[in-house]
Design a protein that fits this description.
five-stranded antiparallel β-sheet, alpha+beta, 6 helices
């Protein structure tokens, strides 16, 4: 768990800083938004069109589509960069990161949010992390225990995937692999940071030896966002000029139950 979140004295660069920047789309949204709509803080780091590093903290709606774009990689997850193996919280846009195919690509965007126990009603949905113990999915898969966020998807290969999607592999939610033995669901009891990485398009990132999906919103239709909500969503990804800049998905997304239906 992210111990830095429990400190009482916040640093100026912490995401809890009161200096929260709002984009024009978010300011317009705030004028028309009713007060009972939940919001949360988002931290964004990115490279602009000139390759310059930028960062901002902002407040936007706490919509599942927004949160899913930020909540894949748990604190202390390890990736390989041109400078060696580094925890995800120490990787910055501009670093070259190793992908699952062995190539290195420049990180363009890094997002972060903080999850924790819900302060709402007892029946409110709680965020669930997924812990995968070392070697749970095969030798060095993962190389050591790995905690992933609620939006993490793993690349999975199975015979049935071609029948369903026409490809040899697909991204599936990490939570679909929970067996209560080597893969466990965890409910955060204290605030914890989760991250996501964004590249030129959908990529397969090697994290502790497992292949994890990077940032891609999927189709605009499946996001369930329209008008101002969609503009506010896109404002969190200033490294992209528009929705089409995310490109085509290299692998489809499926659920384990899609394969189970094949018998």
């Amino acid at each position: 768990m992210d111990q830095s979140l429990s400190t009482a004295s916040a640093q100026p660069i912490d995401i809890f800083s009161q200096q929260i920047r709002q984009t024009p789309a978010q300011r317009q949204h705030a004028k028309t938004q009713v007060s009972d709509v939940a919001q949360r803080r988002y931290e964004v780091m990115y490279l602009d069109a000139h390759g310059c590093f930028n960062e901002f903290n902002t407040i936007a709606r706490a919509h599942p589509a927004f949160e899913e774009a930020f909540a894949a990689l748990g604190h202390n997850a390890i990736v390989q960069t041109q400078n060696g193996y580094i925890s995800v919280e120490d990787v910055m846009p501009g670093d070259k990161v190793r992908l699952a195919d062995g190539s290195y690509e420049t990180l363009q965007w890094r997002g972060r949010i903080t999850l924790g126990p819900s302060s709402n009603a007892a029946n409110a949905k709680q965020p669930m992390m997924t812990r995968i113990t070392g070697d749970a999915l095969g030798f060095t898969r993962p190389s050591q225990d790995l905690v992933l966020g609620p939006a993490a998807r793993l690349l999975h290969r199975a015979n049935g995937i071609r029948k369903v999607a026409g490809t040899d592999a697909a991204f599936m939610p990490a939570s679909d692999f929970v067996d209560d033995n080597n893969v466990l669901s965890l409910k955060p009891s204290t605030p914890v940071s989760v991250f996501q990485f964004g590249f030129a398009g959908q990529r397969c990132l090697l994290v502790n030896g497992l292949e994890v999906e990077t940032l891609h919103p999927g189709s605009a239709f499946n996001l369930g966002l329209r008008g101002d909500a969609l503009r506010e969503y896109l404002s969190l990804f200033p490294h992209k000029r528009g929705f089409e800049d995310f490109g085509m998905m290299n692998y489809p997304r499926l659920r384990m139950r899609d394969l189970e239906l094949l018998g």
